[in-house]
Design a protein that fits this description.
five-stranded antiparallel β-sheet; six-stranded mixed β-sheet; 42 strands; mainly beta; 3 helices
């Protein structure tokens, strides 16, 4: 009996062991390829090649894959790989780091699926040789080498809101004892070169080379020795080439200051507190360069030191606890989908802030600016209402909506959160503004914003003291949708291609632009598009936000797909990508 019982236990244990230790698929996939020079097609040795899974089973774990250094034949082989989606990256001194299938320096490369036990062959990574830039900086007065002068390679790049800014590409170099500088491993392209000024904080360059150096401050200039970027010369860095002779004679830095006072225009007394900011005109906008923290409430005086010649705007935001006039009555709460006129007079406020911001233009030429008087007035308060068309919004989404008005020069702005579909903007200067709305949840768009019957989105509107008007904003849930696929001229899906909806008109309204990135199958989607007329562009690759540049669009205008979107409409598009150009 005991013997049969033991055999029964052994029999029952067999299935349990089979469940706990199922057979494992071996990780024996492989990737084979070669790294070549894009210019001459020759194999490249000494390149570090890496690969890693980019997709696959989300529950699957992958062991690190050791990089491979190519030999004289430029070849690489990865073995013992699990099934997943991969791409290959190659990096080498003297070359721009690139992925397989990457057709431009901004592209994402091509992924490929590797099945269990599969061997993928024929992967080719084409590396572009970098360039070199050299030059000499001399003191304009003595013609001697200018030592320890910062030099930067700069490019104009667009931001998410369409603003342009100069961005350093390799940090700051520093001239040596012969006044010479050298940039190497430079990605081919067009650059501005700036010389002089202070070292950028992120450059990592600190102090002097040794105790026998003396510090000399030089003015900031663009190559070939000009102050304004509009007069600067772009340098063209070519693949594999050395661009020499980029020389600049630079003058010593002479700095000036602005001294002035802030006074209440009605009482002649200084405000209790004030913030004095200074803006300087750049290529496309006014940029804040300094905030004075030495305002004295006893006499209203302030000083802004360390200024180079140029055009400036002094912006003062003063504060007081003394009200000069009664504030306007609160705007009544409105029911959802309400649509009735609101009469409201912009009037001077009485609150903890009180004053309107004041903008004063100042020219710094060849001397200090003394005796500047900035007179401030109480600000006006403006109210408005929000109307929702279509599907209503929960209060949590409604409270995130922000109404913003901005002066044309963008030096003055005010924003207000919407509460109970009403909003109020206070401490405003009288003058011109344009409205925008942010914080909208997905599935909604700004249908209109009107002030006194005028379009406040497309055009500027005027706020005047005592004017009876309100800012009336309408949002709608009747959005349009656009989706489709992007292929190249060989009818292959283009992974990572950039698709942009560009308004047919009003291209200065950057909030109307929309972008999407195509997936592995070339598919893209825009789920919340305001109705209107657009052109749709698809690029294999493009610098971030370069589609805001009118010149970029002008070159490819004929390759855009014109579409017209009505409320709640849907369009499906098949696009051919604009090839990337290095």
């Amino acid at each position: 009996m005991m013997r049969r019982f033991g055999m029964l236990i052994l029999f029952l244990a067999i299935p349990v062991l089979a469940v706990q230790a199922p057979p494992q698929d071996p990780a024996n996939g492989s990737i084979e390829g070669i790294v070549v020079n894009r210019v001459n097609g020759q194999p490249v040795a000494g390149v570090r090649v890496q690969t890693r899974p980019t997709a696959g089973n989300p529950n699957q774990t992958y062991a690190p894959i050791e990089p491979i250094i190519t030999g004289v034949d430029g070849k690489f082989v990865f073995t013992s790989l699990k099934g997943a989606v991969y791409r290959v990256l190659a990096e080498g001194n003297g070359y721009v780091a690139q992925f397989n299938g990457q057709n431009s320096f901004q592209g994402e490369g091509t992924t490929f699926a590797l099945a269990t036990s599969q061997a993928v062959k024929g992967i080719t990574v084409r590396l572009t040789p970098t360039g070199t830039v050299t030059g000499r900086i001399r003191d304009a007065e003595t013609q001697q080498p200018a030592v320890s002068v910062p030099v930067q390679l700069m490019r104009l790049q667009y931001g998410a809101e369409g603003q342009r800014a100069l961005v350093s590409q390799q940090g700051a170099a520093r001239t040596d004892d012969r006044g010479e500088y050298r940039f190497y491993f430079v990605t081919p392209g067009h650059y501005y070169i700036t010389v002089g000024g202070a070292f950028p904080q992120e450059s990592g360059v600190r102090g002097l080379n040794n105790s026998n150096e003396i510090r000399v401050d030089y003015a900031s200039e663009f190559y070939p020795g000009v102050v304004n970027i509009s007069d600067a010369t772009l340098v063209d860095v070519k693949s594999g080439a050395e661009l020499g002779g980029i020389d600049v004679s630079i003058g010593k830095q002479v700095l000036y200051q602005i001294r002035g006072r802030v006074l209440d225009s009605k009482t002649g007394r200084p405000p209790i507190s004030a913030t004095v900011s200074l803006f300087r005109r750049s290529d496309t906008r006014w940029e804040r360069v300094q905030v004075s923290n030495n305002y004295r409430s006893t006499d209203g005086s302030f000083t802004i030191p360390g200024l180079v010649p140029g055009s400036y705007r002094v912006v003062v935001q003063a504060r007081t606890t003394r009200g000069l006039a009664q504030s306007s009555p609160p705007l009544p709460a409105m029911a959802r989908l309400a649509s009735f006129p609101v009469q409201f007079a912009a009037s001077r406020t009485e609150d903890a802030s009180g004053y309107a911001p004041k903008v004063t233009p100042v020219e710094v030429v060849s001397s200090d600016v003394d005796g500047l008087v900035v007179s401030v007035l109480p600000g006006v308060s403006l109210a408005g209402r929000l109307t929702i068309e279509g599907q209503g919004l929960p209060s949590s989404d409604l409270s995130r909506i922000r109404v913003v008005i901005t002066s044309p020069d963008k030096l003055i702005s005010a924003n207000a959160l919407v509460t109970q579909e009403a909003f109020r903007l206070g401490d405003l200067s009288t003058g011109e503004y344009r409205a925008s709305v942010g914080g909208l949840p997905a599935g909604y768009y700004v249908k209109s914003a009107r002030f006194g019957g005028a379009d406040a989105l497309q055009n500027v509107f005027q706020i005047a003291d005592g004017e009876v008007n309100a800012l009336n904003v309408v949002i709608s849930s009747n959005v349009a949708t656009v989706e489709g696929t992007v292929k190249n001229e060989r009818q292959q899906p283009v992974l990572g291609s950039l698709v942009v909806l560009v308004p047919e008109r009003d291209r200065d309204r950057t909030e109307l632009f929309q972008r999407a990135t195509a997936g592995a199958d070339g598919r893209f989607s825009f789920p919340s598009v305001p109705p209107g007329n657009y052109k749709v562009f698809a690029w294999e690759a493009l610098e971030p936000y370069a589609y805001f540049d009118p010149e970029v669009l002008r070159v490819v205008e004929q390759r855009g797909r014109a579409i017209q979107l009505a409320e709640s409409s849907k369009q499906i598009l098949n696009l051919i990508a604009i090839p990337a150009n290095n």
